[in-house]
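Hi Y.,

Following your request, here is the sequence exactly as I used it, all 103 residues.
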Amino acid sequence: MDEIRRTIMNEFSDEKSCDIFIMVLKQKWSECQGNLQGKCAVEIVRDSNDARCMSAILTFEYLDDFILISEWAEETVTPYRDTLSPKTQTFSGVIEAKFEFGG
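Below is the corresponding structure, written out as tokens. Let me know if you'd prefer a different format.
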């Protein structure tokens, strides 16, 4: 099965709001529990050029896991994020090509 990836990009009004949201994400994702069929990877990335911006990148092996975690995030993470009112863009799709280099 092809990997499924969701990228959520947030631009907050200030650096402190971004800091707070990253702290919340670290806490909430460490508490996430689910009966997944396969692997789910979560990466939280701060923009090195603009400290008000961050992304969460989620990768799934199975569509059912994507749906389960998406529902959990909508209930657990999204309401908190929305209180901080960032500009948000979300992209979800199937990985078409992947290149890895080096050892």
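The chain has three helices and four strands.

Thanks again,
Q.
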